[in-house]
Amino acid sequence: MDRHSSDEDDDRQTLIHQNDTKHLPRQIPTSPRASTAPRSGFHIEELESQIRRRFKLTFNKRYLFAIFLPLLLIPIFLSTDIRSLFSSNISSLKFNKVSDQLKESQLQALYLLNQQLTSLLSLWNHTFVNSNDNVSAVQFDDIKASLLNQITLNKHIQQTLLSPHKTGNTLKNATVLDPAYAGYSFDRCRKVDLKFSERRTIEWKPKPNKFLFAICLSGQMSNHLICLEKHMFFAAVLNRALVIPSSKFDYQYNRVLDTEHINDCVGKKAVIPFEDFMEMKKNHAHIDRFICYFSSPQPCYVDEEHLKKLRSLGISMGKLESAWKNEDIKKPSQKTIKDLEEKFASDDDVIAIGDVFFAEMERDWVTQPGGPIAHKCKTLIEPSKLILLTAQRFIQTFLGSNFIALHFRRHGFLKFCNAKKPSCFYPIPQAADCITRMVERANTPIIYLSTDAAESETGLLQSMVVLNGKTIPLVKRPPRNSAEKWDALLYRHGIEDDPQVEAMLDKTICAMASVFIGAPGSTFTEDILRLRKDWGTASLCDEYLCQGEGPNFIAGEE
């Protein structure tokens, strides 16, 4: 089009020049050479010939253009709605104007968010990065998590605002600082450093033919395991081998514990099963001294029925004697190793000490990670190899590495808890709220539920554990299914239906969790906490259910 306009201008200038030449008077040449007529005539004729040719060519181009232009416009006109074309252009202009304003607002918001992020990271640096105090770290974890959540939220907002400006996989003229790559993340529920190597220990060196007969009668299996651990401490202090009770008098420990594991860890024959002990004594053993740690509410916390069971196993004994006259299980006094040596040391071959579950002696020493006895393992009292492998297979099948374990005790717990001040029995909605807060804090996708609660309670609990609109699954061990192989070891060895094996399996799974929520006042929970501490799986987030708050409703007394 530009080329055609230029040609038209040149033709117009040529025509004007030709007309002007015709009307001007003929000038008289002033020089002899200019007066030569033939040359002058030839020049005029040549010029006129050129003008005619150019005019003819230009005329042809202009008329051809004028003829074909309508032919080109007619199809366009017939196929296009002119009104919509112009209105569309106007709308497009308006939309572009609004879009530009939106982009400008987004960029301004991004600028402000970047300013906020810079301030948050500066606050993080000056407040927490140089803190090496473990106590302070625990106290400030909630503040650190809240601050990091704000940094992360800021980052997500920036990414959302920038998403319309993406070109491929890059962002136009913007940089989003990712705290995860800038060293501003931390594991809120990290493992607790319990300084296992710094623990205080005592060597267990049993003298030949010197035995301590363990008596544990208080409560259920968890109580008995705690009692057994304390008896091991007594045996180490008194330089005696510990005799594990018979399954006819106590629980069948060989189904849940591996006594040889204890001996391997200690490096000596420190623990002897009852059957091996009786074989050494040719099926008749005599307890030379039967010493009671507690004298109240009854000596040794043992009744006549259990004494008869001992006698029926081929055990003879003398009269029960109390180490202290006024030692009550309800108000146990603190004892030292010196106290134990003074009251229980003896040259007799076989002595028995009554139930020591409630005993309070050298608490900081006895309850430290790994226990008070020197050994080469993580802990002395732990689940058997079969239970340990079964727990690992269950976790691999259903849970994965990142899960919360919840011990949710309910059966018989209402009356027990309401007798305490404050009560430890929580309504389902309140419990669900506490659990949900822990899920958010620990950032875990699933919960293992160890419970004796009725289906009506667990069903309601499951429906109420919801975070960000997503239900958090509560997983329990399913009934036996031959298609599942995670529990095959238990069936292969014929211990699948033993309630104590199932209880120990629950404990083991809970002890391997990322975070553990326990039932306050439960020795089942306390034994899990012991295992987690000894195995090094204890987390900064481990706590009792709704720790720090009481039930929002408590029933009256009978």
The CATH architecture name of the domain at 385-544 reads 3-Layer(aba) Sandwich
Low-confidence stretches: 1-45, 54-59, 63-74, 133-138, 169-182
The shape, in one word, is: elongated
Number of helices: 17
Average pLDDT confidence is 80
- What is the C-level CATH assignment of the domain at 385-544? Alpha Beta
Distance between the termini: 104 Å
The whole-angstrom Rg is 46 Å
CATH fold field value of the domain at 385-544: Rossmann fold
Sheet with most strands: 6 strands, parallel
Biggest sheet, spatial arrangement of strands: 5-4-3-11-7-9
Please count the beta strands (DSSP E, at least 2 residues each). 19
In terms of quaternary structure, the protein is single chain
Beta-strand content? 5-15%
Give the helix proportion (percent range). 40-55%
Provide a concise account of the structure shown.
The chain has 558 residues and is of the alpha/beta class. Helices cover 49% and strands 10% of the residues. It has 17 helices and 19 strands.
Explain what you see.
This protein has 558 residues and is an alpha/beta fold. Among the domains are: 211-367, 3-Layer(aba) Sandwich (Rossmann fold); 385-544, Rossmann fold, CATH 3.40.50. Helix content is 49%, strand content 10%. The chain contains 17 helices and 19 strands. The protein has helices at 2-23, 37-79, 82-129, 134-162, 221-238, 259-266, 274-280, 304-312, 337-344, 363-366, 385-399, 413-418, 428-442, 455-464, 488-492, 499-511, 523-535; strands at residues 166-167, 170-171, 211-214, 241-244, 271-273, 285-287, 289-292, 315-317, 320-322, 334-335, 350-353, 360-361, 404-408, 447-451, 466-467, 470-471, 474-475, 515-518, 543-544. The strands form six sheets. A six-stranded parallel sheet has the order 5-4-3-11-7-9. Strand 3, helix 5 and strand 4 form a beta-alpha-beta unit. The longest helix is centred in the first third of the chain and has 48 residues, at 82-129. The model is unreliable at 1-45, 54-59, 63-74, 133-138 and 169-182 (pLDDT under 50). InterPro entries: OFUT2-like. Keywords: Carbohydrate metabolism, Fucose metabolism, Glycoprotein, Glycosyltransferase, Membrane, Transferase, Transmembrane, Transmembrane helix. Residues 28-38 have a biased composition (Polar residues).
